[in-house]
Amino acid sequence: MFDSRPMDLAERQRFLTKLPHFRPLGRPLVERIAQATTVRQLEAEQALIAEGQTATSFFAVVHGRIRVYRIAADGHEQVLHHLHDGQTFAEAALLSIGRYPAHARAVAPSTVLEIGGQAFISLLRDEPGVATAMVGSLCMWLMRLAERVEELSIASAPARLAHYLLALPTRAEGSHPEIDLPMTKKDLAAHLAITPETLSRLLRRWQDTGVIENRPRSIVVLEPRILVRIADRLEDDPA
After folding, report:
1. The pTM is what?
2. How much is the mean pLDDT over the chain?
3. Which of the chain's ends, N or C, has fewer CB atoms near its CB within 10 Å?
């Protein structure tokens, strides 16, 4: 359930200590960072930052979901990331690029902690521990970007969808694993760079052929072996 209560300084400090950037730091440093933060409450589809805007902060998702995207030349939205509780973004924009390289918008009602750039950069210069933690965080972002490039490099839409589903956590549904979708199917289509119609056709075909059971916000995998072979491009999409 979305919690729109304001976060006091102590709550912001506790949240920051859970982030990889700041977990190794002592309490006085984290308190200084917390003092440089602003809590942003966003409604669904409310914009947070715009591509090309001067980067003055970076952000951490406290609650909710944030979509990071660019607008292609043909006007279509290219989704780069969907960010969830405890994830951060725009660090590189603040520290290096100087401008935000993409738009960011709330998918659902969200609470975001905005970490002020000037105060943070001063702290980064003065405290080696902050710089070390930041390098580790940026390395994690590089790994995420590499995974995203790999995901989008899969030419076949069926393989791309199967690869994405198999990477999500599962829970038991009787004798079959069930995958909770972390976004709407419209957003999933944009994330996979396919049309909503293509996604609907794939899910319907896989359900008709007994590979999955398609539910409103989840997928039950009835034939994991076939899904793995589709993801690995060892088997054609069942027709």
Report:
1. 0.69
2. 85
3. N
